[in-house]
Design goal:
Number of strands: 25
Helix content: 40-55%
Strand content: 15-25%
Shape: globular
Strand order of the largest sheet: 16-15-14-13-12-11-24-25
CATH topology of the largest domain: Metallo-beta-lactamase, Chain A
Radius of gyration: 30 Å
CATH superfamily of the largest domain: Ribonuclease Z/Hydroxyacylglutathione hydrolase-like
CATH architecture of the largest domain: 4-Layer Sandwich
Structural class: alpha+beta
Largest sheet: 8 strands, mixed
Length: 807
């Protein structure tokens, strides 16, 4: 298995080279020296045993060298070197659209191959290279009727807007979009607000293959699907045939993840198989010679890779398919591990960054796992089904094969899918038995329809009726599977130790050759589990507070040493986003919390309670602590109804109250007083901010001040009433760092060592105020900001406080 061995050692080199910058001269010298030793040993017959280890070292050095170039070499004119545009400025960017733009109601998204930047004011012009993810949005505040620009692949365009780094993780465990873009060599994002800021300079600035074949065919396929299908069915079929997944709704993606069938919308091996079979049959009918059939099939597979966007899964499958065709022609035995090794070699030699692409990892791990474990299951179970003498034997064998194929793929990918989705699908073993053959059939019918549509619209519409029914049935089945209570298990992310332990156990189980080794293998697996448990055991009881990044809003998650979960505020809501659904629920799932023991509502502004209704519908909540404010609206009326329906206890707190029901933890509620929020829920001056719940969380000798959105009147009350009692280690800065809060007298009394400001990037209020930042800096506080750094995570053992670097 030379190709497989090569790829393994090359990957080791990539892992080294992606983490450490190694001096090029030193690396080259070691490489040449190793190569000379190999040549010398090859000539001297007595030293043949040294050639293999030295060759492995040479391959590792090759991977290290290539990954050093891919990860750390940046040309002087790279777009990645340009600084982010100031929030009040704009630059002009010129470049070519490299793919089909994704057009929505109010926005257009595409990848732009940059050529030129003109600075703000037009004083400087720079020639640049590199790709940026670009978004053009309609300016909703502009009353003029400006039509959406008609942008196409290959257009050379000019845009006026803001250049910025691709956003990374904003909260622990979230998908790192910035890393994903960088893996695909996209280093910046560009935002143009308003269609008037886009102009087309010229067209057809792309190669002839894309201009005359790839993009026209893709447009034809997508248009045919849109004309014949709608909704989820259209989006699913686009994913099956073209790999285009931008139209798939978030709800549909969630159903696919929960049902464990996300692989269905990844263009991969099945597409390649259909292409090979179809072309072989068609070309055979016309009596093409074998070699010519193979050459034409290989050419079309390469074209199909380009057509679907060159994702890792389709490239892997195509390379393996091409190698099988070549092996048949030259009459060589097919070795699966060599096939997959060659596929990995080609992809990684071209771009070592692909090793860290989710598609690459899932595609290769699932394929290897499927082959390795299916052979085991075939030996243990499937072969025995053939000896059964029962009715429906063929159906039974088919269903068993589907079940064990799904199980084989899932065994090898559990840690990976758990890390990406924080879920392990249980229902997938059932879902795949029906979904896989149905999707295979839909894909085959879809391919047929695209061919027929080129000749007959009427016949194509008849095929639509059949495929629409197939698509509807399988999507309904997938949604049903995903909706079951036991469909999936919510898990925390696997650590490196967890992953190593998992795969070590798999290796031990796979190494069982006969019954005599079963007991020994079970004992060894038990010892590995015990070792991993002891390694991961945390004997220190710590308080952890995560100040979440929910944009221009507020939310903090408190995890007590006794495993209670306390939520302070629930983020914001808007027409396109809800913090409860998008941020808080996934985070609670990742930390293994399925309930909220205490929910503290500081006040009733939507940037603090925006996610509450979603959380009320989807979580068990022990009790709610609030100021007693009342602010009638559709949103708060719904909130009150849900609380009443769920029979959740509500506790109104006032200045001087405290809670001591949690071990070693005290909540001292310092605000509001009765003069700020009366018994009827009215807030003084109708200013909800000055009715915020403000409290000190004390864990042994450490203290955190949560201030809600209190303003200067509230802070004066606190200073006059509590004086030096206000001193804490951490200050959750009030009102997102607004000038209306964090007064000088309050800062003098509070004297925080750390200050955390929760606000949104580029928010319209210009929070935090430079004046407040200056006050905090002069007080000696170390400042953390969610708009700049994402979430801030704090841990305390009761004696000291540490802010954790979680990225």
């Amino acid at each position: 298995m030379p190709a497989f061995i090569f790829s393994v050692f090359f990957i080791i080199g990539i892992l080294i080279g992606s983490q450490y910058i190694i001096n090029t001269a030193v690396l080259t010298a070691v490489y040449i020296f190793t190569l000379l030793i190999i040549v010398f040993n090859y000539i001297k017959d007595g030293y043949q045993n040294f050639i293999f280890p030295l060759s492995c070292l040479l391959i590792i050095l090759s991977g290290t060298f290539k990954s050093n170039i891919d990860f750390f070499y940046i040309p002087d004119n790279s777009i990645s070197l340009f600084p982010d545009t100031d929030r009040e400025s704009s630059i002009t960017l010129t470049g070519v659209i490299t793919g089909l733009p994704d057009t929505d109601t109010g926005k257009i998204r595409f990848v732009l191959e940059c050529r030129k930047i003109i600075s703000a004011g037009g004083s400087d012009t720079f020639n640049v290279k590199g790709d940026v993810m670009t978004e053009v949005r309609k300016n909703i505040f502009d009353k003029r009727s400006i039509p959406k620009p008609l942008l196409e692949a290959g257009d050379l365009i000019s845009l006026k807007g803001r250049l910025s780094d691709a956003p990374g993780k904003r909260n622990p465990g979230e998908f790192d979009y910035g890393k994903y873009l960088r893996t695909n060599n996209i280093y910046k994002t560009f935002y143009a607000g308003g269609y008037e800021n886009v102009s087309v300079i010229s067209k057809n600035e792309i190669g002839p293959v894309y201009r005359y074949a790839v993009f026209p065919l893709k447009i034809f396929v997508l248009k045919t699907i849109d004309e014949n299908y709608s909704g989820d069915e259209a989006a699913f079929l686009k994913g099956l045939i073209t790999g285009e997944r931008s139209d798939i709704s978030e709800e549909m993606k969630e159903s696919f993840v929960n049902a464990g069938v996300m692989h269905l919308i990844a263009v991969s091996g099945l597409n390649v198989a259909y292409i090979i079979i179809s072309l072989t049959l068609i070309l055979s009918l016309f009596r093409f010679p074998v070699i010519l059939r193979v050459i034409l099939t290989i050419a079309f597979l390469i074209f199909y890779c380009i057509f679907t966007g060159n994702s890792a899964s389709i490239v892997r499958a195509s390379i393996m398919g091409i190698l099988v065709l070549i092996a048949i022609v030259i009459e060589r035995r097919i070795n699966f591990y060599n096939l997959i090794g060659v596929a990995a070699m080609i992809i990684l030699i071209y771009d070592t960054k692909q090793l860290f692409d989710p598609g690459f990892i899932l595609s290769f791990s699932a394929t290897i796992s499927m082959v390795v474990f299916l052979r085991k299951f075939e030996f243990l179970f499937l072969n025995k089904f053939k000896d059964l003498n029962i009715k429906g034997k063929k159906i039974t064998i088919l269903l068993a094969a589907l079940f064990f194929t799904s199980l084989s793929a899932q065994i090898g990918t559990i840690p990976i899918t758990a890390n990406y989705f924080s879920k392990i699908s249980v229902i997938s073993l059932l879902a795949n038995i029906a979904a896989v053959p149905l999707s295979n059939l839909s894909l085959a019918v879809g391919f047929l329809q695209m061919i027929v549509a080129a000749f007959s619209v009427q016949l194509s519409s008849l095929i639509t009726e059949v495929n629409s029914l197939l698509l509807y049935i399988q999507l309904a089945f997938i949604k049903w599977c995903a909706s079951l209570d036991f469909a999936y298990i919510q898990v925390t992310s696997f650590s490196i130790a967890d992953i190593i332990c998992y795969y070590l156990i798999l290796i031990v189980l796979l190494s069982i050759k006969d019954k005599s080794r079963i007991v020994f293998s079970i004992i060894l697996c038990f010892l590995i589990l015990c070792g991993e448990y002891v390694y991961g055991l945390d004997l220190t009881r710590k308080l952890r507070v995560t100040f979440m990044d929910v944009g221009q809003g507020d939310c903090s998650v408190i995890q007590t040493p006794g495993n209670s979960t306390i939520l302070v505020d629930c983020g914001r809501t808007s027409f396109i986003s809800n913090s409860g659904e998008r941020t808080i629920e996934p985070y609670l799932g990742r930390i293994g919390s399925d309930r909220i023991d205490i929910l503290i509502i500081t006040h009733l502004h939507l940037d603090h309670i925006g996610g509450i209704n979603y959380l009320l519908e989807n979580f068990k909540i022990g009790k709610i602590i609030e100021s007693g404010q009342r602010y009638p609206s559709v949103f708060t009326n719904t909130m009150d109804s849900l609380i009443e329906f769920k029979k959740i206890p509500r506790e109104v707190v006032r200045s001087g109250d405290f809670i001591s029901e949690l071990e070693d933890i005290r909540f001292y509620f310092l605000f509001p007083g009765g003069e700020f929020v009366d018994d009827n829920g009215n807030t003084m001056g109708n200013n909800l901010n000055n009715g915020s719940v403000a409290f000190i969380l004390k864990y042994k000798d450490t203290e955190i001040f949560f201030s809600g959105d209190i303003e200067k009147e509230s802070e004066k009350f606190l200073c006059d009433t509590y004086s030096d009692f206000l001193k804490t280690d951490v200050l959750k800065v009030a009102h997102h760092g607004s000038i209306t809060s964090t007064t000088i007298p309050f800062i003098i009394k509070n004297k925080p060592e750390y200050a955390v400001i929760s606000c949104g990037m580029y928010n319209k209020f210009n929070h935090p105020s430079d004046i407040i930042l200056n006050r905090l800096q002069k007080s000696g506080a170390k400042i953390f900001r969610t708009d700049l750094e994402g979430a801030s995570v704090m841990e305390s053992d009761g004696e000291r406080i540490d802010f954790i670097e979680w990225k």
